[in-house]
């Protein structure tokens, strides 16, 4: 096992009716900015609950944060924070609103051009406003981690940053808040959470037994509940398990002491930036191709994954690996998330621009061993057609 240092300061407040806990979680004297997305938080009544819980505090609202939050939009929120002297941010939404809020928290306290926050991968952040979240979509794990992904629309650049200063102080996870999600977002959530776990688990063995079994437990849970989440009417326990699996999938716990990959995510970001696909759609396309292309580098873990997650024990090793990769693809397809570029009308002619963008951003040594060069990424994308 590799050396590690683990500290996650986010308080999780989990369960039905927990939005009212906001009153005790946000300082009484705080001057709050409530950030949200399009219409969903208003329509579902979540914003009304938030306003009630804020009580007599001073607060302002900033709506309109779009999926894959735009730098340009978020800079308007930064101006509002500065103009009104606000000092606490509350995100009400999914990963995009939470990530956007993390950026606003960093940018409002930043001197100079805030795009430098993304260019430095977060290293340039030295201060950030405190933030909390009310989660309405289970997927990204952003509610309990210190990463955010922001898109500069003008240059079609999707970039991430991380800094311990942007861990949410608290996150409210009420599974009933996910009841209003359409099937597409529910399926996206399962695929995103599943892929997060795979990126941290399916690399090469370092005898991280605890991490491996936590990861396998999360994957098995998602395989078990995924079809129910998407195909059956909302029920509390299924949604509660989805929500907790998504949070646990990317809060740092399963990543400690083990190698991590993330090449699928980074290549996927270019598909969103250039072609507008949902984040999880990009993962459903890239992950099976990545596993297939890198099957030798990942051989031992692929065999472990086949046996422990999918129960595949029969046949020679290469057949078991084939079946595990096929099971992964079929799982995504069974949830209604297509796994080929052609399913989204994207052809071979689109690959060059994505590779150029990766190279421009310096994403030239991806994967757990840093050997996913732009040429390897090109070969992986060619397998996605
Ligand atoms: O804008 P509204 O009207 O709120 O609608 C949203 C949005 O259209 C809707 N929605 C959210 N909660 C709802 C709801 N609709 C009905 N009922 C509810 N309760 O869902 C749509 C998608 O929301 P979004 O926040 O974009 O989805 P998600 O949570 O999947 O977040 C995706 C973003 O997170 C980033 C992705 O790159 C992408 O930008 N990621 C962030 C990570 C992190 N911070 O650690 C890791 C991930 O790998 C990912 O990259
Ligand atoms: Zn993701």
Compact summary:
The protein is of the alpha/beta class and 385 residues long. The protein has helices at residues 22-25, 40-43, 46-54, 71-84, 95-107, 115-119, 183-201, 209-231, 236-249, 263-275, 279-293, 299-310, 317-334, 351-360, 374-383, and strands at 11-14, 31-36, 58-62, 88-93, 131-135, 147-152, 157-162, 170-173. The chain is built from 15 helices and 8 strands.
Primary descriptors:
single chain; 385 residues; alpha/beta; Rossmann fold; Dehydroquinate synthase-like, alpha domain; 2 domains; six-stranded parallel sheet; two-stranded antiparallel ribbon; 15 helices; 48% helix; binds 5,6-dihydroxy-NADP; binds zinc ion
Please explain how this structure is put together.
The chain is of the alpha/beta class. The protein has two domains: 11-177, Rossmann fold, CATH 3.40.50; 182-383, Up-down Bundle (Dehydroquinate synthase-like, alpha domain). It is built from 15 helices and eight strands. Strands 1-8-5-4-2-3 form a six-stranded parallel beta sheet, sandwiched between helices. A two-stranded antiparallel sheet has the order 6-7. Strand 6 (147-152) and strand 7 (157-162) form a beta hairpin. The longest helix has 23 residues, at 209-231. The chain is globular, with a radius of gyration of 20 Å. The protein starts with 10 loop residues before the first strand and ends with a helix. The mean pLDDT is 98. Bound molecules: 5,6-dihydroxy-NADP and zinc ion. 5,6-dihydroxy-NADP binds next to helix 2, helix 5, strand 6 and helix 7.
